[in-house]
Amino acid sequence: MRAIPTLKISISGVRGVIGESLTPALLTRFAQAFGTYVGAATIVIGKDPRTSGEMVKQAVIAGLLSSGCRVIDIGMCPVPTVQLLVRHHGAQGGIAITASHNPAEWNALKFINADGLFLNSGQAREMLDIYHQGEYTKVAGAEMREVEEFSEATDLHIQKILEELGPLPQREKRLRVVLDACNGAGSLVGPKLLEALGVEVVPINVTPNGLFPRQAEPVAENLGALSAAVKEHRADIGFAQDMDADRLAIVSEQGIPIGEDYTLLLATLYVLGKELGPVVANLSSTSVLHEIAKRFSCPVFLTRIGEVNVTEEMQKQDAVIGGEGNGGVIYPRINFARDSLTGMALILHLVAETGQTITELVNSLPSFSMVKEKLACPSDKIAAVLRMLRQEYSSSPLDLRDGVKVTLPAGWFLVRGSNTEPIIRVIAEADNETTAREIVAGVYKKVQACIGS
Amino acid sequence: MRGIVGETFTPEVAVGFSQAFGTYLDGGRILVCRDTRASGPMVRAAVISGLLAAGSEVIDLGISPTPSLQLAVKSLKADGGIAITAGHNPSQWNALKFVRGDGLYLNPTQAEELLDIFHQGEFAKATWDQIKPAIQHHDPIAHHIERLKSVFDIEAIRHRRLKVAVDCCNGACSRLIPLWLKELGCEVLAINDDPTAAFPHAPEPKPETMAQLSAVVKAGNADIGFAHDADGERLGIVTELGQPLSEELTFALATWIRLEQKTGTVVTNVSTTGAIEQIAAVYGGNVVRTQVGQTYISESMIELNGVLGGEGSGGVTVPEIHSTHDSAAAVGLILEGLARSGKPVSRFVHDLPRLTMLKHNLPVEPNRLYSVLQNFRVAIEREQLSYDLTDGIRVVLPQGWIHVRASNTESMIRIIVEAEQAKSAQNLLDWVRDRLNK
């Protein structure tokens, strides 16, 4: 028996381990629930290159066809491509088969609505109610359809990006880019896009075989190979994608990972330079985003954490750019989705049009330091910890939409309980690392006292 | 495992049985084919996901006749196969047929083992580094035709330049049979050979479903017409005069043709026409009767080295190809007979023993099936008649024979009687019903 059950059914979808919890019967029921929820409609499905992808896909197809859906299978592709193709086909929904940055033994279903957005929490709850109720639409055999295969999805995605942003301006010397696709869903489309933009591409980890050459999260400690390749090839920039190609991290021309937070910052810098309008990000985004927006006199709206919260707010505010600090860039002219392909195109345009290096661009922004920590905390104490923080900091500006966010004279911190593990997450930002760590230490002390009491 | 799609036959059930089959075969290479039902793509997806989850390697044969899969199991060195087809059942049904490594269906003992695994619900689960990341594709038709060509006298048939009408019922035979007939040098008048279209009539070759084929035979002056079920097992025949034959006569005609060439043991089940014994008597063949169910015929064919197997539903087994029903093999055998003899098919039919068979189904509540049969047996014993219990109760009487058994698929008693005269057959049926109602 395993001590920790691996199945996780939540408003973000269903996630589990192959060979343990994520069985074809469970998957086909989820697909039936989704088919029942959207009502015998057109559904676009795509998958990342995990080894279990085909099994999961077939189980999903069986469930969708059984509930009367028309299924368009766009094959292996980034999650944002699935989101884009839902709108392209005028479909009523989509299912992306990917466990994003989870290790190779995991897989998951992510459910997408007719706008190409992930289901929001209310919609996800409605679908989960159908799943749990277990009464799915079953159409008669004669009404079932064949699966339609659509092989041009990623080409269409590239074309859309080129239409919106155009090729890079001509330079004396073409930009040289190293792309580390983590053998993920961006392995084929990533190099193709870069070539279409007119840069010289050095691809690494572009064999989409479901084997992870590195940890999938594009954070600094996982980008050693990319940094080395950037230096070796004297490249202008290094890009790292995660397994489902929604997040993007950047390595500078000096071979230094600049930190995921900078992806959205640089993209915002480029977009606002072209077009003024609101910027949307989540509560844990760096305050430098506000500084950039202020330069252009544009407002910033912060939302609860979760991609769909950002995209819904972007629709509401008619934002020109948005995203998350984890490397997720959302550019609504292409797609209401975190999209590493669009992110690469925006950053390359910035570099090509300003003529500045990544290091110069980073240095042009105010310096900041963000510290992210996990603190062990029994699940039943999380509520008490949050209550204590609200009381302790009641004289500071508080944002209580997602955990407790406290703005201090020297920076800010955000404390949230985890839904999945007995931990609380603390994020703090200040203009230097020492101050940021001091803020975390202060919070940690209060939390310890609270848990201990 | 069969059911109505949209009701009892859900994707979970198909997934579960496929996981059980993958577990039963301990991973291995498994072939999958389907007939042309609209629910086929759904069931196929469920089957493939279940097999992959259990660690199997899957080769998809697409829309193919079940016998093509059965031959491919051997040629592709597979460990088994799943044919997604409800055979002659109407289009709202679907089913999984499980094939072993030797190309035959699971026998009842093996099927029970599979069911135990299904009910136990503890399936083999491949981990991420064991699971097969993709499926392969293969077209089994060319190999099937090669095997057919190696068995029959192709030159003799080609020489006759027969004109053949076929009704593929828009089923899995839509590609194989016209190709096979062209290989045999026949002029082919094909109808309902569009696998993307719905069944134009019940996919069960019997006189009621052969009116359209009969019209084509007459209009086109064909030498013979062949009607196929959805998955290539059963065959119906229309004579050159446009007369649709009872499905009972397909096997009788095949037996005549086969024994004329090669005498030996013919294997059939207890409810097939007694004409088989009469034909065998002419040529000195021996008839062995098994329980109802194709697997019994297949296994007896192998055990007894039979020269032909078959049953009254129109299924014919030609053992040189494989020991399972195969309508393409039956087509080859019958055309070879026509070619060698030079006789029209109506002449063969004219010479066949003339018997009248009546079939009647008596609905009975599921919990009374056994006791109704038991009471019937007691009634027979009271009259001091001898009977055969191979499958249900079979009694030979002076005017003919009767066979009474419980259906495997529905809650009813199936009654079959056969006599030389229509009047005697009716009397036999009344005789059985009297005793069943007691």
Descriptive account of the structure:
- The complex is a heterodimer of chains A (453) and B (438).
- Chain A has 453 residues and is α/β, with parallel strands linked by helices.
- Chain A has 3 domains: 8-151, Alpha-D-Glucose-1,6-Bisphosphate, subunit A, domain 3 (Alpha-D-Glucose-1,6-Bisphosphate, Chain A, domain 3, 3-Layer(aba) Sandwich); 156-363, Alpha-D-Glucose-1,6-Bisphosphate, subunit A, domain 3 (Alpha-D-Glucose-1,6-Bisphosphate, Chain A, domain 3); 369-452, 2-Layer Sandwich (TATA-Binding Protein), CATH 3.30.310.
- Chain A has 14 helices and 20 strands.
- Chain A has a 7-stranded mixed beta sheet, with helices on both faces. Chain A has a 5-stranded antiparallel beta sheet with strand order 16-20-19-18-17, with helices on one face. In chain A, strands 9-8-10-11 form a 4-stranded mixed beta sheet, sandwiched between helices.
- In chain A, α8 (261-274) runs parallel beside α9, α8 (261-274) crosses α11 and α13 crosses α14.
- Chain B is an alpha/beta fold.
- Chain B has 3 domains: 2-142, Alpha-D-Glucose-1,6-Bisphosphate, Chain A, domain 3; 150-351, Alpha-D-Glucose-1,6-Bisphosphate, Chain A, domain 3; 356-437, Alpha-D-phosphohexomutase, C-terminal domain (TATA-Binding Protein, 2-Layer Sandwich), CATH 3.30.310.50.
- Helices cover 39% and strands 21% of the residues of chain B.
- Chain B is built from 15 helices and 18 strands.
- In chain B, the strands form 4 sheets. In chain B, strands 1-5-4-2-3-6 form a 6-stranded mixed beta sheet, sandwiched between helices. In chain B, strands 8-7-9-10 form a 4-stranded mixed beta sheet, sandwiched between helices.
- In chain B, α1 (11-24) packs across α2.
- Chain B is globular.
- The A-B interface holds A 17-20, 23-25, 27-29, 32, 49-59, 61-63, 65-66, 104-106, 138-147, 209-210 and B 4-7, 9-12, 14-16, 19, 37-39, 41-43, 45-46, 48-50, 52-53, 91-94, 125-135, 198.
